[in-house]
């Protein structure tokens, strides 16, 4: 098992090192000679270690379910560790804890940052920072649509009530073809957004960086004010692409040939309905007659950013009325569609939980009736319902445990985190959003979180990004038993 894990993880590490090279080239293009050399050194170290694990230690063989779960769970932690090297070598983030937190936030597309002003970073580091989110977003799509279904878990695999057949989530019979087509869709949307942002008030570098972090629903920006300093046109473009990224990429692929697939897809209709409802509530809460267009834009941007777990900001929602702040926290749990780059519980799971609860109420009144949970007019099999319920139970368990642990860490290290800050930081990290409330709000960052709290939040980011099960299984005896 160890040698097969070495093969997979080594390949992932080598690929991560290769992804650092474009960042070094960007530094060279901007004549940042020292940073370019240091990023290249980080790439060389990462690729070398990856190749040793892949080519010399690793062994090919049929991957079992156990090995698949172990590989998925471990790869993201190892990838995040080596992803710290560009930050450490350039001195952009000299502290290992902060560098790991920033890298984990990148690869998990969380967007939580410890950097007060990204504008002080070199262009190479900024593009590496944005690139980690872009790579992480695509990795999640392939993981949830083509890998986790083969292991028996995953958000899209749960949504098979939407389509006939045992494996509807694989767009083609071959994994490689599935991944290739998903990549093309992802790249095409990214390029389109780059062109539209470049046509506005962003230069090409800003357009590329923000397109990377929009399509991945990541939220890393190049300015300390996030998106607030850009034009209304730019904010609307990013709002539209956040909405696109929050929908299933498998659905986008099918809709290329049949646009009517969007209207026929129950989860997409529910996702759109919930988002429009959230925008309406936020708009009602912040509406001002003399600035109605700005209120509408901030409402649409903020609701879309939080529900799709992107984490960009144009307004300080931490200063809004308490009722709206509660809504914001609720949207953190909701998330986008299955098979998207968004985090959170996902729309499909929320629908199944609601329908199964309603079915249980009906059974109390009609104990002899045969009542099934339905979604989109189709019965959801009991194993799927049970899997959704288990996921939500573990999700809430991690949320509550994380909040308690962060509170205990604060009580020992005493850095001034209040309950609102701690609770929203855990919800934001587990849901892969980024900003929370209080000290970690949209106008601030996570620098004030104690060092042990940063490791905890980084763990929650990875657990939330991997749909919880692969990470929790790493701590079970059965996974490692021969």
Short description:
The protein has 482 residues and is mainly alpha-helical. It has helices at residues 2-29, 33-57, 65-82, 85-90, 96-107, 123-151, 155-158, 175-198, 204-215, 232-245, 249-257, 261-264, 266-286, 292-307, 322-334, 347-365, 382-413, 419-430, 451-465, 469-473, 477-480; strands at residues 374-375, 378-379. The radius of gyration is 22 Å and the shape is globular.
Itemize the secondary structure elements and their pairings:
Elements: H1 2-29, H2 33-57, H3 65-82, H4 85-90, H5 96-107, H6 123-151, H7 155-158, H8 175-198, H9 204-215, H10 232-245, H11 249-257, H12 261-264, H13 266-286, H14 292-307, H15 322-334, H16 347-365, E1 374-375, E2 378-379, H17 382-413, H18 419-430, H19 451-465, H20 469-473, H21 477-480
Antiparallel strand pairs: 1-2
Helix pairs in contact: 1-2, 1-3, 1-6, 3-5, 5-6, 5-19, 6-8, 6-9, 8-9, 8-10, 8-11, 9-10, 10-14, 13-14, 16-17, 17-18, 17-19, 18-19
Walk me through the structure:
The protein is an all-alpha fold and 482 residues long. The chain is 67% helix and 1% strand. The protein has 21 helices and 2 strands. The termini are close together.
Strand order, largest beta sheet: 1-2
Query: Level of helix content?
Result: 55-70%
How many β strands by DSSP? 2
Q: Kindly estimate the percentage of residues that lie in beta strands according to DSSP.
A: under 5%
List keywords for this structure.
482 residues, mainly alpha, 21 helices, 2 strands
């Amino acid at each position: 098992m160890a040698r097969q894990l070495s093969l997979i993880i080594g390949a992932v590490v080598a690929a991560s090192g290769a992804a650092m090279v474009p960042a070094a080239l960007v530094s060279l293009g901007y004549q940042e000679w020292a940073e370019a050399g240091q990023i290249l050194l980080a790439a060389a170290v990462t690729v070398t270690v990856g190749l040793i694990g892949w080519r010399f230690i690793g062994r090919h063989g049929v991957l079992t379910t156990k090995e698949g779960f172990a590989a998925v769970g471990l790869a993201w932690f190892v990838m995040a560790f080596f992803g710290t090297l560009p930050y450490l070598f350039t001195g952009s983030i000299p502290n290992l804890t902060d560098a790991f937190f920033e890298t984990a936030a990148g690869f998990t597309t969380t967007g939580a940052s410890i950097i007060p002003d990204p504008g002080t970073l070199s262009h190479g580091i900024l593009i590496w920072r944005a690139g980690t989110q872009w790579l992480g977003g695509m990795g999640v799509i392939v993981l949830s649509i083509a890998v986790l279904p083969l292991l028996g878990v995953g958000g899209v695999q749960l949504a098979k009530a939407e389509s006939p057949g045992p494996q509807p989530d694989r767009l083609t019979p071959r994994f490689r073809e599935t991944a290739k087509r998903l990549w093309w869709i992802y790249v095409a949307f990214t390029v389109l957004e780059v062109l539209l942002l470049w046509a506005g008030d962003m230069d090409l570098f800003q357009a590329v960086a923000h397109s990377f972090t929009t399509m991945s629903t990541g939220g890393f920006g190049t300015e300390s004010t996030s998106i607030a300093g850009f034009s209304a046109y730019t904010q609307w473009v990013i709002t539209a692409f956040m909405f696109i990224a929050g929908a299933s990429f498998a659905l986008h692929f099918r809709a290329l040939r049949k646009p009517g697939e969007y209207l026929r897809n129950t989860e997409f209709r529910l996702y759109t309905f919930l988002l429009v409802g959230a925008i309406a509530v936020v708009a009602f809460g912040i509406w001002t007659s003399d600035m109605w267009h700005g209120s509408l834009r901030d409402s649409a941007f903020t609701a879309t950013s939080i529900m799709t777990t992107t984490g960009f900001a144009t307004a300080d929602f931490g200063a809004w009325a308490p009722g709206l702040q509660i809504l914001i926290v609720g949207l953190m749990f909701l998330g986008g569609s299955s098979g998207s780059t968004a985090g959170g519980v996902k729309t499909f799971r929320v629908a199944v939980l609601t329908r199964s609860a309603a079915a249980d109420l009906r059974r109390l009144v009609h104990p002899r009736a045969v009542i099934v949970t339905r979604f989109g007019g189709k019965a959801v099999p009991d194993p799927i319902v049970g899997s959704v319920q288990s996921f939500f139970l573990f999700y809430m368990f991690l949320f509550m445990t994380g909040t308690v642990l962060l509170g205990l860490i604060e009580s020992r290290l005493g850095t001034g985190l209040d309950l609102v800050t701690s609770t929203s930081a855990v919800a934001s990290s587990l849901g892969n959003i980024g900003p929370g409330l209080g000290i970690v709000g949209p106008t601030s960052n996570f620098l004030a979180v104690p060092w042990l709290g940063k490791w905890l939040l980084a763990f929650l980011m990875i657990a939330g990004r991997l749909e919880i099960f692969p990470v929790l299984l790493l701590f079970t005896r059965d996974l490692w038993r021969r």
